[in-house]
Amino acid sequence: MSHPFPPPPAATVPIAGSTDRFPVHRIYCVGRNYAEHAREMGNVPEKGAAPVFFMKPADAVVSDGRDPLFPSATQNLHHEVELVVALSGGGADIDPAQALDLVYGYAVGVDLTRRDLQAAAKAKGNPWDIAKGFDDSAPISAIVPAGGRHPVDERLAISVNGIEKQSTQVSEMLWTVPEIIAELSKLYRLQPGDLIYTGTPAGVGPLAPCDRVECRLEGWAELAFTMVLRA
Ligand code: MN
Predict the structure, then answer these.
(1) pTM (whole model) above 0.70
(2) Cα 110 to middle of ligand 1, angstroms
(3) How many A from CA of 29 to the centre of ligand 1?
(4) From ligand 1's centre to the CA of 6, what distance in Å?
(5) Ligand 1 centre from 1 Cα, in Å?
(6) Is 22 helix (H, G, I), strand (E, B) or coil?
(7) What is the per-residue burial (b if ≥16 Cβ within 10 Å, else e) of 182-213?
(8) Every domain of the chain and the residues it spans
(9) How far away, in angstroms, is 154 Cα from ligand 1 center?
(10) Which of 41, 89, 132, 213 is 20 to 30 Å from the Cα of 122, by its Cα?
(11) How confident is the model at residue 47 (pLDDT cuts 50, 70, 90)?
(12) In degrees rounded to 5, what are phi and psi of residue 126?
């Protein structure tokens, strides 16, 4: 097959302890999955009828020690530290009791958000895409193969320039990982290579160019990067 120009390279993420790489199919994200964060954003925390979902493009991932470029068009870039689920299986209408069988591993990631553009979109009832799905908007650690274990009550935390900004136990999630997979699979046929950013706890706040960000999912994964000033 020939192409008018070279096909774009596949987005991949390193796998901890391996030279293999995890090929990214899609990036799904969950909104308002921690009660205290829902409150700080002015929403009434409730599990509701279904989780809030949105997406980022696969090539928004930033990994391998690369530093994300500070995005254009925002005066209020925010960090959102999140547990990330990486799938090696898929399907539609998945039973929550079988959902963890589809999980390849876990990572810690940051759902970078143009908060000012998100607030404007919410006010107008517009989509969130430009607030969430920009270039370099999905920093992620290496993916740690689950190997039969799953995060239950691990601490998830982020510091900016050495000061802790967000910290929670992942057990505080309103929708659990199996529930998220089951709900998402009612809307999309999930595929091997899908990543799911599972929502952020309270304490979201601004990032500036040159800020140093350090995240960890205790006992699993760590991620560190510096926001790069646009030339
Ligand atoms: Mn988020």
Answers:
(1) yes
(2) 8
(3) 6
(4) 33
(5) 39
(6) strand
(7) bbbbeeeebeebbbbbbbbbbbbeebeeeeeb
(8) 12-226
(9) 18
(10) 213
(11) confident
(12) -90, 165
Q: How close is the Cα of 57 to the center of ligand 1, in Å?
A: 14
Rg (CA), the chain: 17
Structure-block tokens of residue 69: 């470029």
Distance CA 38, CA 33 (A): 7
The pLDDT assigned to 231 comes to 79
Superfamily name and number for 12-226: Fumarylacetoacetase-like, C-terminal domain (3.90.850.10)
Of the candidates 29, 15, 25, 14, the residue with the CA atom closest to the CA atom of residue 196 = 29
Using CA atoms, how far apart are residues 63 and 44, in angstroms rounded to an integer? 34
What is the pLDDT of the chain when averaged over all its residues? 97
Amino acid type, 95 = D
Which residues neighbour ligand 1 (ion) by CB within 5 Å? 80, 111, 200
Give me ligand 1 centre to Cα 44, in Å.
17
| Cα dist from 50 to 15, 35, 40, 174, 195, whole Å | 31, 15, 20, 11, 19
Q: Ligand 1 centroid vs 63 CA: distance in angstroms?
A: 18
